[in-house]
Specification:
heterodimer; A: mainly alpha; 17 helices; B: alpha/beta; Rossmann fold; FAD/NAD(P)-binding domain; five-stranded parallel beta sheet; 30 strands; 29% helix; 18% strand
């Protein structure tokens, strides 16, 4: 007697994928051209063919348990070669957009960050909070508000202490939400790939191994964009993306340097322009703007050519990053020129944009940073477990079983 | 009439090099007594044609033989009024198919063989010309132009409109009280034109109003055909009210089973008559003429289909019998009534499983009488659910074959885009009642596993049964009976030779269209109706001008019967594939000229050899055979004859020759209209004149026959048994006469078939009667 799997298609899932840019999902007739043409698909677990079928049949739990969704960089090769116009690349993009929302807690935040109005509102709200804090801060420092006397020096307006108070708590919140999302995602893909069956609770990498054996190689790969560069149809997009990634790394380093120097050693900003860190910061800012502009141009062109589809999610993130870069450079320039009336408002706008970008990390398309990186790590781990090379009591190869639906 | 004959030999195309033309000329002018013999190296050029024309006029020739290219090539320049034209194929049948290799050792001997072959073809052609007469068109005195359309559905309405548009009066006979057929009972229908991606509103109302406002079309609803007598151009149609009995109902002849007693012995004529009379009580003889019959020229049969209703014990594994398991026709009725609700409790239906193939794992065939239409209808019905329940309606289609041919692929694509329609190939193994409704188990699905779904209803994609499966419909008052013959070969669909002649039935002047012919959508039926209407009109033109219908449309000849010698054996009336012959009062065959397709099957059947055409008869072919020069003392020069069917075998020989095939120069090929026309006497003639073997090359017969006259090659094969017997009784090897089947595209093997036959005969040695 055959085992029959009960199928109850989740219609709202299919509609969700269709609305998020995957409206062509049902056209797939399983010829597998996509999986063959994909430069990133692996022999062990080819994609995106299976994801197309699961999405057609509304099998939401299966898609959630599938790390392969995140190994796709939406280069558009599959879409270009699909004989039936099912646009698998766009469908996977839509699935990822929905997954981000699925892992985001609370959902209301994801809903807010999911549309341009919500993002602009967030920027304005952040600016408002910054202004209130700055107002009270001016009561404490005795500086004039909103335009402190003398040359434009931002720390007279708002020094590191209130900024840290605001942004560190924001970062802590974002960090917690992100970790929760990553953990949930890890649990889902472990279950999805059948790892759960091994010990009953599921194998889990030890922290040291996780960091050294899996996370570090993943990061190295991400930093080189080795996979993104394999993408055929949108090769140029990888360059812009690499610039933006490195810009973020530089700016992350610079911010932390300033954080440590100012908070711990009492340094006062601004640093002089010849300071190596300042030079690095300026390079980072220019790379950010340049990189995001490349991405914008490329996406715009490829969208017009029909290689890929772009949703509002895509454009929101691009313009938000662009706004962060431009307002950052703007505040610096206005400060150097000494136009008070423009410098302080631009600075406040910059702070609002940065706060929004922080907040966007787990709630918007920005979250691909979290889940794709996690998927890279998971892929390495999963491979080792299957091969019996994972160590820590996992020396025998694991034969995954088909997971239960649910 | 004595002939003044001109023979023209084409010496181009390699004929001049292959043959000694002077010797051919000598033969013709000398032994054969041809009046004018000329050669030309480009006979078919304007100059060549002018040369012949001049001779015809100045020498008053009344017959010409063109010895050159195959008779299958038409040269209108050589048609002269009152002049009989015959074509001998020296190019294909001699020069091209008997090339002698440069390095052949016995070149001279081979050349001699080829020369003798050409000489025999000249002898045969001249002999034929001496005997043949020009046919004179035998026209109907009055050819009625009215067309009868049986069936008032989409097909019938379309056929009527097309015929009316072409200027013909039309009568539509519809059994139901209303026009429109099944197409008038639909909620929505499959598209009839671009962009094909979604359902459209039914088109039939538009056709009905067009028909009703057309003054050339008379509509008779609630009416059936009691009988159709007569022949194309003058069919006598008797009508009656639906469901009633009429004295003019067509009588049904006895079946083979009814003609024998329980022991299998044939009943006496009187007993048979008794059974026949009982069976047809109250019905007039088929020969009687209904004075009130309406005359029509041709008939379009568009009687359509009826739903396949599964028997009570059928499809038990699919829970047939459960009120929520319905056929597609029942589902359409539910949908037409309004929002679809469950038959068992009236609950709105949210999920439905459509099953296209009932056989489970063991048999992947679809339901009986299913077609592409049933696939398309399942898609359509899936959309009904989505229309009724746009939020959460789900339709599952489980198929082994999803057939959406041609433009309907766009229909499939359009519906596939709907998020609530789920499609997978798979074997449905079980449907069983569950708490919520029904559970459907499907194995081996595209999901890579065996799945089960819970649904409110299950729809079986049952098929469309052609009306001709169970009843005669046309009710012909023909000697061969009221119905089309052998429809069981086509599952009851009304057809005669699907690959070659769509619309054609085995009754001339009656053309089938729409779902009675095969499962068709409304769009396809409308197109089909156009085709059948045009065929009907064509048959009227043929009847009026006196030529045959397809496939011998150029043929104005008609078989002559020398009735004084008829023994009333009835072989011709029984064997005519088209039922052209009725009986008269005495039991002699009564020809119906316009039913005849000129295949000559009657001629082949007649043991008295009293049936023949003016240019194709027992004497002509017999004389051609006797004209072959048979050396009676040379074992190297055996002679075989090949009767090649003009429809497939002969063209394949031409093609083989054009492609450089070689076959033995010992065979002489005689084209025949159909193997059915080959009379056993020809084989006797051949054997008695010392010919060593005879091969019949004809079309495939049997269930997948390709015979252009349906039964000809099969009948020829049956007659071969008798031939074998007579050869045996003469002490000759029965293998000397053989029948081989060949299709037109098998030109690569036709030479091999001939050569193998020749080898067999050579191995047997000469005909023992040679030289007697």
């Amino acid at each position: 007697m055959a085992e029959f799997r009960k199928i109850e298609p989740d219609l709202s899932f299919i509609k969700g994928v269709m609305e998020a840019g995957g409206d062509t999902v049902n056209r797939c007739y399983q010829c597998a051209t996509c999986s063959v043409i994909c430069p990133l698909s692996t022999d062990e677990s080819p994609f995106p063919r299976k994801e197309m079928l699961w999405a057609q049949w509304g099998m939401a739990p299966r898609i959630a348990g599938d790390a392969d969704v995140w190994l796709c960089h939406q280069c558009g090769d599959c879409t270009a070669y699909c004989p039936r116009g099912a646009r698998p690349g766009d469908v996977l993009g839509a699935i990822r957009a929905n997954a981000i929302r699925y892992y985001a807690k609370p959902k209301a935040m994801a809903d807010m960050m999911g549309n341009a109005g919500g993002v602009i509102g967030t920027v304005i709200a952040s600016m408002f909070i910054v202004l209130i804090v700055a107002f009270f801060w001016s009561q404490y420092t005795g500086e004039a508000f909103p335009f402190p006397e003398g040359k434009v020096v931002y720390h007279k307006f708002l020094s590191v202490v209130p900024i840290d108070a605001m942004y560190l708590s924001l970062a802590a919140f974002v960090g917690l939400v992100s970790i929760k999302g990553i953990m949930d995602f890890w649990a889902d893909v472990s279950k999805g790939s059948g790892m759960v069956s091994y010990t009953g609770t599921g194998p889990r990498p030890a922290l040291g191994a996780l960091l050294g054996k899996y996370l570090w190689p993943a990061i190295v790969e991400i930093l080189s964009h080795a996979r993104f560069k394999k993408c055929g149809q949108t090769l140029e997009r990888a360059r812009g993306h690499l610039w933006v990634l490195w810009a973020f790394l530089i700016l992350f380093f610079v911010t932390n340097y300033v954080f440590i120097a100012a908070d711990i050693f009492g340094m006062h900003t601004p640093m002089p322009q010849y300071h190596p860190v300042k030079i690095l910061a300026n390079i980072g800012a220019i790379m950010l703007i340049g990189g995001i502009w490349m991405i914008r141009t490329m996406r715009s062109q490829k969208t017009k050519e029909g290689v890929l589809k772009s949703s509002s999610q895509d454009w929101i993130l691009i313009w938000l990053i662009f706004a962060v870069g431009i307002t950052g450079i703007g505040s610096e320039l206005f400060r150097l020129i000494g136009i008070k009336g423009l410098a302080y408002p631009t600075y406040v706008l910059h702070l609002g944009c940065v706060a929004t970008l922080f907040l966007a990390l787990p709630y918007s398309k920005f979250a691909h940073l979290l889940y794709r990186s996690t998927a890279y790590v998971y892929q390495l781990w999963d491979k080792d477990v299957r091969a019996g090379k994972a160590g820590f009591g996992l020396e025998k190869p694991v034969v995954p079983v088909t997971p239960e639906e649910g | 009439m004595s002939k003044k004959i001109g023979l023209y030999i084409h010496t181009g195309d390699g004929i001049g090099e292959a043959l000694d033309i002077d010797k051919l000329v000598e033969l013709a002018t000398g032994g054969l007594g041809v009046d004018v013999v000329k050669t030309h190296n480009d006979l078919y050029s304007p100059e060549g044609a002018a040369m012949v024309k001049q001779d015809v006029e100045s020498e008053e020739l009344n017959a010409i033989v063109l010895a050159g290219v195959s008779p299958r090539y038409e040269y209108k320049e050589f048609s002269f009024p009152g002049v009989y034209t015959e074509k001998a194929s020296l190019r294909e049948l001699v020069a091209w198919s008997h090339k002698i290799p440069e390095d052949a050792e016995d070149k001279d001997a081979q050349k001699e063989h080829v020369q003798e072959l050409a000489e025999d073809y000249i002898r045969m052609s001249v002999t034929k010309v001496q005997k043949a007469e020009l046919p004179t068109p035998d026209k109907l005195e009055e050819c009625n132009q009215k067309i009868l359309v049986i069936g008032g559905g989409v097909t019938g309405l379309s056929a009527a409109l097309e015929a009316a548009e072409a200027g013909h009066e039309v009568t539509i006979v519809e059994r139901e009280p209303e026009l429109g057929g099944f197409a008038a009972k639909l909620r929505k229908q499959i598209p009839v034109g671009p962009d094909y991606s979604n359902l459209v509103d039914p088109v039939v109302q538009d056709l009905i109003s067009k028909v009703q406002s057309n003054n050339k079309i008379a509509v008779k609803t609630n009416t059936e055909v009691a009988r159709i007598a007569g022949e194309p151009g003058e069919f006598r149609v008797s009508l009656k009210e639906t469901g009633t009995k009429s004295e003019w109902d067509a009588p049904v002849p006895l079946t083979d089973e009814e003609k024998v007693d329980e022991n299998g012995n044939e009943l006496s004529a009187e007993d048979q008559k008794k059974i026949y009379d009982e069976k047809n009580e109250g019905r007039k003889e088929y020969t009687e003429v209904d004075p009130d019959a309406e005359i029509h020229g041709a008939v379009v049969l568009a009687s359509g289909w009826k739903p396949y209703v599964p028997a009570e014990d059928e499809f038990q594994h699919l829970a047939w019998g459960n009120p929520n398991v319905v056929t597609n026709v029942q589902f359409e009725e539910l949908a037409t009534a309004g929002k679809i609700t469950r038959p068992s409790d009236g609950k709105e239906v949210k999920s439905v499983a459509f099953i296209l193939s009932p056989g489970g794992k063991d048999d992947d065939s679809d339901f009986p009488y299913a077609s592409a239409v049933t696939s398309l209808v399942a898609l359509k019905h899936a959309k009904y659910i989505r229309e009724d329940q746009p939020e959460d309606g789900k339709a599952f289609i489980f198929y082994q074959h999803m057939r959406t041919p041609g433009q309907y692929e766009y229909f499939y694509k359009g519906l596939q885009d709907d998020p609530g329609i789920f499609l997978t190939k798979g074997a449905v193994t079980e449907v069983k009642p569950s708490d919520a409704g029904l559970t459907v188990n499907v194995e081996n699905t595209i999901l890579g596993e065996d799945i089960s779904v819970d649904v409110d209803m299950v729809v079986l994609a049952t098929g469309m049964v052609p009306t001709t499966r169970d009843e005669a419909v046309v009710n012909l008052a023909y000697r061969q009976g009221p119905a089309f013959r052998d429809l069981d070969l086509f599952g009851g669909y009304c057809d005669s030779n699907f690959i070659c002649f769509p619309y054609e039935t085995r009754r001339t002047g009656i053309y089938a269209a729409g779902d009675v012919r095969r499962g068709l959508t409304i769009e396809e039926s409308m197109e089909d109706a156009t085709g059948a209407a045009l065929k009907a009109i064509q048959s009227l033109v043929a009847a009026q001008e006196g030529h045959a219908v397809h496939p011998r449309t150029w043929d104005f000849d008609y078989p002559d019967f020398y009735f004084q010698r008829c023994t009333q054996c009835k072989r011709c009336t029984e064997e005519c594939p088209f039922g052209a012959l009725d009986d008269d009062e005495k039991g002699t065959p009564k020809p119906n000229r316009t039913r005849c397709r000129r295949c000559g099957t009657c001629m082949g059947a007649c043991p008295e050899r009293i049936i023949g055409f003016k240019d194709y008869n027992i004497d002509i072919v017999g004389s051609m055979i006797k004209a072959i020069d048979v050396p009676d003392d040379d074992e190297e020069k055996l002679r075989m004859i090949v009767f090649a069917c003009e429809n497939d075998a002969y063209p394949s020989l031409d093609m083989a020759a054009a492609r450089g095939a070689w076959w033995s120069p010992l065979v002489r090929i005689i084209p025949v209209r159909c193997l059915g026309s080959v009379n056993v006497s020809w084989i006797k003639d051949a054997m008695s004149s010392g010919i060593d073997g005879a091969l019949l090359l004809g079309c495939r017969f049997g269930d997948d026959y390709q015979c252009h006259f349906v039964k000809g090659s099969e009948l020829a094969n049956r007659r071969m048994d008798n031939v074998a017997e007579s050869l045996n009784s003469l002490g000759m090897e029965p293998e000397r006469v053989k029948l081989a089947q060949i299709a037109i595209d098998e030109y690569d093997s036709v030479a091999k078939i001939i050569n193998e036959f020749v080898d067999e005969i050579v191995a047997m040695g000469p005909n023992p009667f040679k030289g007697w």
